[in-house]
Every structure is written in C-alpha cells, then in structure tokens.
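## tool: complex_structure
## caller: assistant
## args:
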Amino acid sequence: MIYLDNAASTPVHERALGAMMPHLRGSFGNPSSIHRSGREAARAVAAARAKVAALVGAAPHEVVLTSGGTESNNLAILGIARARPRSHVVTTQIEHEAVLEPCAQLESEGHAVTRVGAGRDGIVDPADVEAAIAPGTSLVSVMAANNEVGTVQDIAAVAAACARRGVPLHTDAVQAAGKVPLDAARLGVSLMSVSSHKIGGPKGAGALYVRDGLRPVPVVRGGGQERGLRSGTENVAAIAGFGEACAVAAERMAGDAARVSSMRDALVAGVAGRIPHSSLNGDASRRLPGNAHFAFLGVRGEDLIIKLDEHGIAASTGSACSVHTQKESHVLRAMGLGRDEIDGSLRVTIGPQNTRAEVDEALEALVSCVAELRRVSPLRQKYGL
Ligand SMILES: Cc1ncc(COP(=O)(O)O)c(C=O)c1O
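## result:
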C-alpha cells in the first residue's frame, strides 16, 4: 500500500516504538506510586513532558498531558469559557469538529460563540478575528493549520490582535505541530493543542500547552494528576512514545519539510499538467508541506478514494471524522467552493516516510482513476469532460 493519508494518522516511528516498549512489558508501575516501579514510570512521563515542551516552545510545567487533540481542545475551550458565566468565544468556521462541538456545547449552556469566516484561499483574516472580539469575550480559538486543505494561519497576527484586546488565544495545532515551527511563547499563544498520532507517535496521547498563570476549569476530574487539570492514571507507554515522536519531529522538521514539500509540489504540478478541470484547494504557498487538496470536476471524491484503494493507494476526502456523519465539508463550504468542486475533492497528505517513486505512482493512478470515473459521470456534458 502507498499510504498518502498522513493527516489522518501516521505510522509509529521506530524510536517512538522503542520508547514505548519498556512500559508495555516489564515497567508497569503507576507514576503516582512511591515505590521504585512508580518512580520509574514518573521519570518516563517527566522525560516525555520535557520533549513535548521543547517542540512547542513551552516550559515542561505548562504541558498538560491528555488522550489526544480532541481532549486538549475540549479542555482549552470548555475549561476557559466555563470559568465565567455567559461568556463569549470567538472561533472560525473552518475548525475541526473537536473545536466546533465544544463550542456548540457552550452555546447550549448559555454562552455565546462567534464563528469568523475564511477566504476562498482558506485563510482567516486576523482583522476579522479582532473585530469579533467583544467586551465579554473570554477566549479566541483559531487553528494553526487546517486538517482538510492544509492552510497555515497567521497565528502571530491573531495572537497580537488578542493581546491588544486582552483575550487569551487557543490554537488547535494538531496538524501544524512537528511540521512547521511553532513556539507558543514567542507566538504569544496562551493555549495550544497537539496530538501524538499525527507526528509519528501512538494514538491515545496528546497535550495542551497552558501558559503559566492560566487555569482552565478541568473537564476530567478525579485523582488530581496533571496539576489537577486532567485526572486519570497516565498512559505511560503512549506518553513515552509521544515524547520521543516530538523529539524526532523537532530534530528533522526542517529537512523533512523541504523533502516532503518538494514531493507535494511535484504532485500538484503533475495534476495541473495532466488532469484538466482540476484545481488545488487552499492557498498554494501558505500550506502544510505535505498537503495537496484537489477538486476534480465530474468525480465524486468517495468514488475516487475507492478506485485509488483498488490501486493500493490510501487517500481521503478530508477529515476522518466526517466519514461518520457523511456531511459535506463545512471547511470547503466556508471557503465558498461550489457543490461540484466539494463533491469532487480529494486530500493527499504526504509524510516523511513516503518516497518520490510512491508519489509518482500515485499520480499515474490518479490520472487513470479520474479519467475512468469521468467516462460515466453525469456531469460529462455540463463540463465537457
Ligand atoms: C485539526 C485537528 N484537530 C483535532 C483533531 C483530533 O485529534 P485526535 O485525533 O488526537 O483526537 C484532529 C484529528 O484529525 C485534527 O486534524
């Protein structure tokens, strides 16, 4: 299989696996235990926390370990907004469901939410975010990079706008972390979500950076782990793997980004040159290194994915979560794409483990699958396909 769905999940890096194994075999202590086995587990968690902190520009004590990006987003959004009655949150229309759903929950609890739009290029204008901030705003949440079209937002400009208005900024950096440099302190971000399985770590681990001095109301309550912000016995093996994946990502980010983006550019150029009536969705340059997101008129994205799968190629239409709801992409709709473009969209996400030969083979498969599907397309006449 040629795996080109790295935005959905990534293969576990050998070094991450190596860091996990001792905690799946002999070393099984609870990090809260006082005895030697417990202390060994606590040391592993502390070492991993330091590596996560280094990747995101945080101090280790500012890192709250969670079960993943979804939980981190819930803690940030529910935790900050619920600290005040009837508060107001500003977010965008192109966020992941893991931001949109907690925001909808807040509305059902009597809080207010403003959702700022994005341009046709998938970029959110920081001025629109600033204009949406009101006297009662307790939090702004703008994603660092989009999971569908891969557009990278100007988080420094959004943070500056939030600072002018004295409102903390949360950024969902699940897709951006480990791919583009992100230094929470330098950017002026107050809360930042990251996830292990998007960067070569195992599933079931993630983190929320919480700037010193901020204290979200906990969502998961119990024994008081993670400074009381996230109770529950730590998933030591997954955390150890996550920490190591962060270290690998930090070491290799610049080289990987250059190699991955050159493969992506070759694919984009190949599609533009060989598949008529196709387009690239999202800004051409302000995007994640591995993201190529296309619209092929006259083709249904789901049919294309099935055809590509028959050729041994794994791709996606967008967010893995939307598969469960079968909804049209809210991101592409917010960007103003037409129905036929949305229906014909395909996301190809390249990772550092992929090779140029794999990408070239995927292009050949794409050319033939799109042509095959267009031969039986009901839109053949409409677009002269
Ligand atoms: C932008 C974004 N936020 C949040 C999540 C959820 O992260 P997790 O799978 O770790 O819960 C994802 C996963 O697809 C994502 O892409």
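## assistant note: Residues 68-70, 73, 96, 98, 143, 147, 172, 174-175, 195, 206, 319-320 surround pyridoxal-5'-phosphate (CB under 6 Å). The first helix runs from residue 14 to 24. Handing back to user.
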